[in-house]
Amino acid sequence: MLNRARTSDVYRRPFHFSRSLTYSKCSLFVLVMWAMRKTVIGGEVSEDDWVIVWNGRSVGRISLDAFPYNDAKSWTWATWVHPAEHGRVDTMEEAREKVRKVVLRVLANED
After folding, report:
1. Which domain holds residue 25?
2. Distance CA 53, CA 34 (A)
3. Per the domain annotation, does 6 fall within a domain?
């Protein structure tokens, strides 16, 4: 059973597996959960600073840069999986999607 949380505090999105994996003879049920939690550094919480959690493991961070340099895009994203990647995008949704894609790509290549 999933815990209910306010949408402003947590972003949850299940990852959908293929039908053969979900309904196999061994009754294997796998649920991978994505979440966003506010970043806490030294007891301080920033308004638009989020840690991305995948299946209970912190895998990245997104944050809004209130004063981006020159014409830079306002949202920054970074992953904490090896090899780490980072970048800038226009919206929080794009940043979440970039982190999700990088993490899934890196984890798919692990042996």
Report:
1. 13-108
2. 6
3. no
